[in-house]
Design a protein that fits this description.
The protein has 138 residues and is α/β, with parallel strands linked by helices. It is built from 4 helices and 7 strands. The termini are close together.
């Protein structure tokens, strides 16, 4: 799936990603400011989370629940990791073995720890209000 979209269409893109994804483990690639966190916020909203979502840059992981308090997913931002050991120390394997949605920003920082069934999502700038998203389904 490859789409070019305006910010106003991001919920439609989020729904399309959820519908098309064969896995709940999504890796987001793109330069700083490409819209990874914004897209993840839209995905979290589309899944029915109570919290609107934010980047977990300083805490490394955010947890999202629905209105009934059921766990929906986790959002990781690995930008500040020094090495993969830090991800293991925070219990990444346990998170990955859950049935929750997993949204990972900067997954290239933990490349050797990524499961085989992840879905890579590439975001690119087109202009200030336009992005391109490419979902690689294996």
């Amino acid at each position: 799936m490859k789409k070019t979209f305006q910010r106003s269409d991001i919920q439609t893109v989020a729904k399309a990603i959820i519908d098309a994804s064969p896995s709940k483990q999504l890796c987001f690639y793109g330069e700083m400011g490409a819209g990874k966190t914004t897209l993840i916020k839209a995905l979290v909203k589309e899944l029915g989370a109570v919290d609107s979502g934010s980047s977990p840059t300083f805490g490394l992981v955010n947890e999202y629940h629905d209105v009934q308090g059921q766990l929906l997913g986790y959002h990781f931002d690995f930008y500040r990791l020094e090495d993969e050991i830090e991800a293991l120390d925070m219990g990444l394997e346990d998170y990955l073995n859950s049935d929750a949605w997993i949204f990972m920003e900067w997954p290239e920082k933990i490349k050797s720890l990524l499961p085989e069934d992840i879905v890579p999502i590439f975001l690119h700038f087109v202009d200030e209000n336009t992005r391109s998203v490419e979902l690689n389904i294996r």
